[in-house]
Specification:
Strand order of the largest sheet: 4-3-2-1-5
Mean pLDDT: 89
Low-confidence stretches: none
Order of helices and strands: EEEEHEHHHHH
Helix content: 40-55%
Number of domains: 2
Strand content: 15-25%
Distance between the termini: 58 Å
CATH class of the largest domain: Mainly Alpha
Structural class: alpha+beta
């Protein structure tokens, strides 16, 4: 038996939040194997079979964050220092690594770096590279789905929720400084 059980909710690679429906033995490619059967929460028509013995694929299954961990991540957002990687090839590779790592704090930094670069590009009358835009949207999808699921809000409510929390934090700090 694997480390997860039926009913567990996990973050699976770039597929987002999934519920483990069952663990079954199935014949695929002439071999009988044990599989986790995952149902993406926000794409219920999809089904993902993850071979229990395939350590690389099982490693892409991660426990979801708690509400407290999400709030701490949001609280740290304004302080996150981000650097822009000018080399497009290096930047693409780094973005791919971050997305496959499942490191939510790194995803937040990546989104922030791309967003800040996008604002700078807009001031120059330029657009963001399509690949940068795609990586930002993919990271947002992963984070927003997880945040929405854990915080019991819709994915569309996540950005307003984050912005409200950041502004409340900034106002609290400004108030403390004024005293």
């Amino acid at each position: 038996m694997g480390q997860y059980k039926t009913g567990d909710t996990v973050l699976y690679s770039t597929h987002g939040i999934c519920q483990i429906q069952e663990q079954v033995r199935r014949m695929f490619g002439g071999e009988s194997r044990e599989y986790y059967v995952l149902k993406p929460v926000y794409a219920p028509d999809s089904t993902i079979f993850v071979p229990v013995e395939n350590a690389a694929l099982v490693a892409k299954m991660r426990r979801i964050l708690s509400a407290a961990e999400i709030r701490a991540l949001i609280q740290a957002m304004p302080e996150e220092n981000v650097a822009w990687l000018e080399d497009e090839t290096q930047r693409k590779e780094r973005c791919r690594q971050i997305l496959s790592s499942g490191d939510r704090a790194a995803m937040v930094r990546m989104i922030k770096a791309i967003y800040e670069h996008q604002k700078a590009q807009q001031k120059k009358g330029r657009r963001l590279h399509l690949s940068d835009e795609r990586y930002m949207k993919e990271a947002e999808k992963i984070l927003y789905e997880e945040f929405a699921y854990v915080l019991h809000i819709s994915p569309e409510q996540v950005l307003p929720f984050i912005l409200e929390k950041i502004q409340v934090e900034e106002k609290t700090e400004e108030g403390a400084l004024a005293k």
